[in-house]
Write a structure and sequence with these properties.
With 98 residues, the protein is mainly alpha-helical. Helix content is 77%, strand content 0%. The chain has three helices and no strands.
Length: 98
């Protein structure tokens, strides 16, 4: 009788440790739930950054297409030259808010 109780206590203790071990690794190991949540957050941030970069690329491609057309868009060309090179007309006053 006494021997049976000791075995039961030892087996239930080992089973408890085994269950605790698996629960720990399910929750907080390298491939656990907390890692999954943090990687999903990182993925969302990267998706947002990718979307912003793709929009910037499309905007730049659109600007390039406007500048390389045979009948040039002179207003866009003038604005680009002014912004890039810092030119102004003689009768203009430029206020820089940087």
């Amino acid at each position: 009788m006494f021997n049976l109780n000791v075995k039961f206590i030892i087996y239930s203790g080992l089973l408890t440790l085994l269950i605790a071990y698996f629960i720990y690794h399910i929750v907080s190991a390298n491939y656990g739930i907390t890692s999954l949540i943090s990687k999903r957050k990182s993925l969302e941030i990267i998706k947002i950054q990718t979307y912003d970069i793709e929009n910037r690329v499309l905007h730049l491609q659109n600007s390039i297409n406007k500048l390389t057309k045979v009948p040039y868009d002179l207003d866009l060309l003038d604005e680009s030259a002014r912004n890039l090179l810092g030119y102004k007309k003689r009768d203009e006053i430029v206020i820089d808010f940087k």
